[in-house]
């Protein structure tokens, strides 16, 4: 009897593990590779160069010129297997074989507590590994600001921090401090940042909703210009022209330990770092595309934005087509669908019940047999 009971329990346990394994992708928590961008302070024909480091051997390998001049932040998205980069105020992606920068779109401007602000110089970039949200930080004459960026269009996410709030100030902080980069700890979802002035480097936390900043500790190194976490919650930083090295940073004490020396190929001022360490993530049903179809099917708009109980998706067909419409959450899970049917040429307003959707950003895909078109909307309450 005991043997049969133990067998049943073991069978059920293995079944549960198998079910969980089917729902999740499990990755080696150790960094597979770390990417860096050096701007070289004008010492090269193209200022920005993409390089990579093998964390096992510590060997740095130059990949190639990005074709840009002002990349100051990069971030790897485990949801899209994409290395994003920001060149001033232009979001793009970097080719991992050639280094070439492919533009996605300008961040543009946003409305908030300090009026209409234009974000043409974004200094920090990170992908939240728990939600897929792409955060950016920008320094203006009036202070540091936190924004969300639409990774499909490059533009600032409207109402990301509430109705009429497209950005939030980061503070309170000494006005002399510049937020240089961002990183989200995959273990607890906490957003960290490195803030510097001419005499010190501080590790701070930032509330992802309010922008409230708290100083954690002073970092035992100057010129830490880039941040990234690995899947075990280890924080890496890159030291620019002053040291040209990758370091680990103790989030409790600020103590720094050098781990990799940089400078291969004469590269000089390293601005950013992104280690590819994904941990355990839900298996997505859908990953939104970087492009929208300009052809026979088009996304016109979604309204109201933000939505509360209902959102209307307006789509256009230039000729009769068979198509379907699906809505996905930020992790790529399908949460609503309009079955495939025939649409004649014209504009259609399709209502979606948003009352059962959690607050956040949602992607939708209009799909025919030959084309796809994509859009986004926000649910807030």
Q: Mind telling me the C-alpha Rg?
A: 22 Å
Major sheet: 4 strands, antiparallel
Mean pLDDT: 82
Number of strands: 31
CATH superfamily of the largest domain: TolB, C-terminal domain
CATH topology of the largest domain: Neuraminidase
Which shape, going by the Cα principal axes? Answer: globular
What low-confidence regions span 5 or more consecutive residues with pLDDT below 50?
1-30, 279-284, 287-294
Number of helical stretches of at least 4 residues: 1
Taken together, the total number of domains comes to 2
CATH hierarchy, class of the largest domain: Mainly Beta
**Roughly how many Å apart are the termini?**
55 Å
Architecture of the largest domain in CATH?
6 Propeller
Report on this model:
The protein has one helix at 2-23; strands at 24-26, 34-38, 49-53, 60-65, 71-77, 82-87, 90-94, 101-106, 109-112, 115-118, 122-127, 134-140, 143-148, 167-169, 178-184, 191-196, 201-206, 213-218, 224-229, 235-239, 245-249, 256-261, 270-275, 280-282, 297-303, 310-317, 321-328, 334-343, 346-353, 360-368, 372-379. The chain has 381 residues and is mainly beta. It folds into 2 domains: 27-282, 6 Propeller (Neuraminidase), CATH 2.120.10; 297-379, Macroglobulin (MG2) domain (Immunoglobulin-like, Sandwich). Strand 19 and strand 20 (235-239) form a beta hairpin. The protein is globular and about 65 Å long. The model is unreliable at 1-30, 279-284 and 287-294 (pLDDT under 50).
């Amino acid at each position: 009897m005991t043997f049969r009971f133990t067998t049943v329990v073991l069978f059920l346990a293995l079944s549960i593990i198998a079910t969980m394994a089917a729902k999740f992708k499990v990755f080696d928590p150790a960094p597979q590779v770390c990417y860096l961008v050096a701007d070289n302070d004008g010492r090269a024909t193209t200022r920005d160069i993409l390089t990579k480091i093998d964390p096992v051997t510590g060997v740095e390998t130059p990949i190639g010129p990005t074709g840009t001049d002002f990349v100051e932040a990069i971030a790897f998205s485990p949801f899209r297997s994409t290395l994003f980069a920001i060149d001033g105020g232009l979001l793009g992606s970097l080719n991992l074989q050639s280094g070439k920068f492919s533009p996605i779109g300008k961040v543009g401007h946003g409305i908030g507590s300090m009026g209409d602000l234009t974000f043409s110089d974004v200094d920090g970039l990170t992908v939240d590994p728990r939600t897929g949200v792409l955060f950016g930080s920008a320094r203006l004459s009036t202070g540091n600001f936190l924004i969300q960026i639409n990774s499909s269009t490059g533009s600032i996410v409207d109402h990301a921090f509430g109705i009429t709030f497209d950005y939030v100030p980061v503070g309170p902080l000494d006005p002399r401090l510049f937020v240089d980069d961002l990183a989200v700890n995959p273990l607890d979802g906490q957003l960290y940042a490195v803030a510097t002035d001419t005499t010190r480097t501080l590790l701070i936390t930032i509330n992802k909703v309010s922008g409230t900043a708290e100083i954690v500790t002073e970092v035992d190194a100057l010129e830490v210009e880039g941040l990234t976490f690995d899947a075990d919650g280890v924080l890496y930083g890159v030291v620019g022209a002053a040291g040209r090295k990758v370091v680990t940073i103790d989030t409790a004490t600020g103590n720094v330990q050098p781990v990799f020396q940089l400078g291969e190929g004469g590269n000089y001022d390293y601005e950013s770092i992104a280690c590819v360490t994904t941990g355990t993530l839900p298996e997505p049903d859908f990953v939104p595309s970087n492009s929208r179809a300009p052809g026979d099917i088009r996304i016109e708009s979604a309204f109201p934005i933000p939505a509360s109980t209902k959102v209307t998706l307006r789509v256009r067909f230039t000729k009769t087509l068979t198509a379907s419409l699906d809505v996905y959450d930020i992790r790529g899970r399908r949460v609503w669908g309009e079955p495939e049917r025939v649409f004649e040429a014209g504009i259609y307003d399709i209502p979606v019940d948003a009352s059962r959707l959690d607050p956040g950003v949602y992607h939708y895909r209009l799909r025919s047999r030959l084309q796809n078109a994509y859009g986004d909307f926000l649910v807030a309450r």
